[in-house]
């Protein structure tokens, strides 16, 4: 936070307000202010001209408000237990003019003049949306712990207050709102709307005078007809501005009245005679012309208003669609899910072009702010997902659906899927290794059994050697050695140890588990070992 020493009303103060987005402007920026429209704030920031107030408003409301604020500050100091100092400060482009700030910068004092409705709301602990943006921006800029929001007339008797605490949701909304306002300000083109016009004075038709005694004695009908015909021909039907619509609506009412007046004149004339054909036909003609023009003009006013309103909403709809398109290009292939802006609701009951455009543009800005927040969250999730799920994209074909989950839920889902996939792959790999070991062990056993078969055949005659009568059939010869004249028994041939004995001996020698010995044996290249042994002889 940066503190600025500025005097209200000086050129430096005005320049500061022009270059910064103030807390007191936050409600207007979000379209929540009842006093300043969003388009008015855009115009003021664009032109550098603040909203002008009448001398009466300046003297009786604004200046009086500063006086009441000064009276209320000591009462607030007693309430807080600390001194308060008016401060103008900023954080980047956001600024705040605090009615009071404690030396510790922990508490902000904000004062509003006594208003029965506002006082009742604050007494119930509720700060209306029109004032909440200002309070939250005060907290955002100052990093204070709370705002003491006071409504009073400067006296203890008429004073209510409530505390406003920092809200991360409001902080995000304010930051996003000013970001969108900044974009709109860069593209802003001033449009000058006249105040709601008063219809031009309609040229009055001459009073139709008729006197009859069996025949028309006195009448200004020719002059009346000429005037009425010219009036009808001059009625404007090309409606564009608020003034055109105001004139058209007044003309419709005038034509309706003129029709009724002609009907009364006819009735009066008929009361004087039974039949005056020319008079009646002329009056009927003029009356029919007036009625035709009135109905056509009335229908034109209605259709033209609808056409203009539809045009404004269509323009806003296209702008919103383009905004969505640009955001989705950034987060491709994800498609945004959002609530469509209610342009029709915003345009309802707006009777001037200025109010219509302001309402629709404000709805458009708020819709952009909302969808920007959604896109921001999606971008963050995509960035995290890109790192966390690297090489595992195939697990997330439903990313369009799951990415709109809350951050924690989304991350849990991604991590769980990857962990389950890794576990399944590891189990599959382990099963494959076990199968391969079993196959290798089976082949090893077959090899050993094949090698043992001849050895078994050679050891079988050992028992027969003691029986010479059977030696002929086996082909084996008894071998005897003599020493010192004594015969000795044949040398016993060592039998091959079993597989288990070999494995057990190796395990004991190398002090490893039998499974490790089996793994070593399976990894042996027996053919190469045989070649090396043969080469050694």
TrEMBL record:
Record-linked InterPro entries: PDDEXK-like_dom_sf, Restrct_endonuc-II-like, YqaJ_viral_recombinase
Residue spans of biased composition, Basic and acidic residues class: 422-444
Region Disordered, annotated ranges: 422-476
Annotated YqaJ viral recombinase domain residues: 12-144
Protein name: YqaJ viral recombinase family protein
Species, as recorded: Pusillimonas minor
């Amino acid at each position: 936070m940066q503190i600025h020493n500025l005097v209200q009303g000086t050129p430096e103060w005005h320049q500061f307000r022009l270059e910064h987005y103030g807390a007191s402007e936050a409600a207007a920026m979000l379209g929540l202010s009842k006093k300043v429209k969003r388009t008015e704030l855009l115009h003021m920031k664009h032109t550098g001209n603040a909203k002008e107030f009448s001398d009466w408003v300046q003297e009786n409301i604004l200046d009086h408000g500063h006086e009441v604020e000064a009276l209320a500050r000591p009462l607030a100091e007693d309430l807080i237990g600390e001194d308060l100092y008016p401060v103008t400060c900023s954080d980047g482009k956001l600024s705040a003019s605090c009615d009071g700030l404690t030396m510790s910068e922990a508490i902000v004092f904000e004062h509003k003049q006594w208003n029965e409705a506002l006082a009742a709301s604050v007494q119930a602990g509720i700060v209306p949306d029109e004032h909440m943006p200002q309070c939250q921006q005060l907290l955002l800029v100052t990093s204070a712990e709370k705002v003491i929001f006071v409504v009073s007339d400067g006296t203890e008797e008429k004073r209510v207050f409530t505390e406003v605490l920092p809200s991360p949701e409001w902080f995000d909304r304010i930051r996003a709102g000013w970001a969108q306002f900044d974009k709109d300000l860069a593209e802003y083109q001033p449009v000058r709307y006249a105040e709601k016009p008063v219809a031009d004075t309609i040229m009055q038709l001459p009073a139709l005078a008729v006197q009859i005694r069996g025949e028309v004695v006195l009448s200004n009908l020719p002059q009346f007809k000429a005037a009425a015909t010219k009036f009808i021909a001059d009625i404007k039907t090309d409606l564009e501005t608020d003034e055109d619509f105001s004139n058209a609506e007044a003309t419709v009412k005038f034509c309706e009245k003129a029709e009724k007046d002609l009907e009364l004149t006819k009735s009066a004339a008929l009361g004087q005679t039974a039949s005056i054909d020319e008079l009646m036909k002329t009056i009927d003609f003029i009356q029919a012309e007036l009625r035709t023009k009135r109905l056509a003009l009335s229908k034109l006013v209605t259709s033209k208003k609808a056409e203009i309103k539809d045009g404004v909403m269509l323009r806003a709809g296209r702008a919103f669609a383009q905004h969505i398109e640009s955001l989705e290009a950034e987060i491709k292939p994800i498609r945004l899910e959002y609530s469509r802006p209610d342009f029709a609701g915003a345009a309802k009951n707006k009777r001037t072009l200025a109010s219509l455009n302001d309402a629709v543009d404000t709805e458009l800005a708020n819709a952009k702010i909302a969808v920007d927040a959604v896109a921001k969250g999606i971008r963050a999730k995509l960035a995290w997902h890109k790192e966390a799920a690297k090489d595992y994209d195939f697990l997330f074909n439903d990313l369009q659906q799951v990415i709109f989950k809350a951050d924690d839920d989304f991350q849990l889902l991604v991590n769980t899927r990857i962990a389950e996939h890794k576990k399944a792959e590891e189990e599959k790999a382990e099963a494959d290794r076990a199968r391969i070991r079993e196959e290798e062990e089976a082949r090893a056993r077959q090899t050993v059994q094949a090698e043992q078969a001849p050895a078994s055949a050679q050891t079988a005659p050992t028992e027969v050697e003691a029986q010479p009568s059977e030696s002929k059939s086996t082909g084996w010869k008894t071998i005897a050695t003599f020493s010192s004249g004594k015969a000795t028994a044949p040398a016993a041939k060592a039998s091959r140890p079993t597989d288990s004995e070999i494995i057990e001996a190796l395990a004991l020698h190398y002090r490893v588990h039998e499974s490790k010995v089996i793994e070593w044996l399976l990894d042996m290249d027996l053919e190469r070992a045989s070649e090396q042994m043969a080469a050694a002889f």
